[in-house]
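Why this split exists: single-chain examples teach little about how molecules sit against one another. For that reason, every record in the complexes split bundles all components of an assembly together and asks for one structure covering all of them. Below is a record exactly as it appears in the raw files.
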Amino acid sequence: MSDSQRSAPLLEVRGLKKHFPVRKGLLSRVVGQVKAVDGLDFTLERGQTLSLVGESGCGKTTAGRTMLRLLEPTAGQVLYRADPTSEALDLFNLPKKEMRALRPDLQIIFQDPYASLNPRITVGNAIAEPLLVHKIATGSEVEDRVAALLKRVGLRPDVANRFPHEFSGGQRQRVGIARALALSPKLIVCDEAVSALDVSIQAQVINLLKDLQDELGISYLFIAHDLSVVKYISDALAVMYLGRIVESGSADQIFNDPQHPYTRALLSAIPHADPKKRKKRIPLTGEIPSPIHPPSGCHFHTRCSLVEDRCRRDWPETVALGGGHQAACHLVQGASVTGA
Amino acid sequence: MSDSQSPEGAAKPLLELRDLATWFHTDEGTAKAVDGVSYKIYPGETLGLVGESGSGKSVSALSVMRLVPSPPGFVERGDILFRGESLLPISDEDFRRIRGNEVAMIFQEPMTALNPVYTVGNQISEAVMLHRGLSKKAAREHAIEMLRRVGIPSPETRVDTYPHEMSGGMRQRVMIAIAMSCDPALLIADEPTTALDVTIQAQILDLIRELQEDSGMSVLLITHDLAVVAEAAHHVAVMYAGKVVEYASVEELFEKPRHPYTIGLFQSLPDLAKQGERLTAIPGMVPSATNFPSGCRFRTRCSIATDLCAGTEPPLVSLEPGGAHTVACHHLEEASKL
């Protein structure tokens, strides 16, 4: 990748926040806020894969959806550059019409394609729909495009007339990918896209996603809880805990030199496919606290084995550890990150 | 695990399936979900039963528990032996004394397995009142003790909460508390951690291991996740399309997998692959249970299959005397080069 490209990433997310009001009573008064996503900063490079990881309830899915404006953001900026040379657009500031024009570039695939595909529409029509809506193809051209897309994801073109229930889980996920590919996207948000698949099928779909990336230069925001898949597929990682990023860096930095106690505990919890490596885990007691009443100070302090007084009091600043590696922990020494 | 519990040792198996076949008679044909499965579980050991969706691993366990919906499902042939005695001729009424008492089961999704309108305390008490004849008061005390044993904080108040008030990990602990309440000899855990976060998964696996060390029970751990097996099992049976294709100790299986399917499963794991390296996926998908291929059922996805594989089903044979490692493949020599 050349220097000019490096300086102009596909997407820069700054201070992303999404709060949900908690309503109670007859008049649905707002009694609190769930800070599902509470100030995220990350950068997605062209043709690369960034993974958001964390336990359920950490806000990774909300982050992915808010970033695409499928949920209205509470605050923040998402700077998008279609090309390295083009000017950055803030997705959150675009009028609806312009946002709509950008939608083809930004696609999403979900964990369960069965829930996201209409059971009464053939997969051929499901894949054709975005082409027609965005007036990318008309007439017989549509059929050809659909056939080509099905082929591209490893399905026979003649399955276009079938309905979603006639497919296995892995095949349905291929249909979901074909649908996302229809509009030649620059970015696909993969929200637990391979989590529900059997291991042999999962490997097929991961290979497909990698091939598409190599071929078409698509960037992926990979939202996942399975860290062995993440380790394999990611260039960069951001570890989330209760709506915030506690550590981020390259896949190598996070997996081989984790600094935040939460990252270390999370990694030590991964079972290894090697009975000789049954190892001592870093105990992570309890569960992720409710985001309605997050703990004071560092959100992780209630489960951290290294907790000190200041952790209960103050949220730790994110510090830079060199080479793009960042962590937010009082016990990690590093240079201050300004503006982050 | 001590040596006396290994297959080579003197101990008798606690549970043994002999050529078990459970078929479902449906409008689309007969689904041979389990079709000639044999495995043994020894006292105090954990047997990992691995396979993809549709391999028949859950149905084999449900057959043991007599929880296969019937019709359409029937045990067609074979036998299930518990402490050396066949479970099949036992009447439903007598079987209820075993199920939930000597053999207990936990499931993947505790929310659907728990009754939403009863407190967790009620649900734990139910089993001991039924099987052990405890009074209501004693059963409540027992329920609190069980909740404490499975690591639920402030069990005295938690005993009166409902399942929906708990997180997924807590609910799975409650399921385990119910299963353990009668101190079973065998715990069947069907994908117990699949729906849980990796951190909670680690806690639950540790909990099951601790309970096993305390009570000496055997565990049948059903999972699709080889990494979970590596962590928790002593022996492993790999299932494919209604059959056991390979059986070995966990160390042996992970070091020297012999069946092309087992080898393929390992090569599919991103865990073991280097970053950037292409995964070696098994092509195609698991065949439908109503229409398994002739001969070896894996042959349609196997890179070394020959005419022999299409014509003759490979028997499960021992690699060495004693049956510590058994494989069902015609082409072990070629498979070793995969």
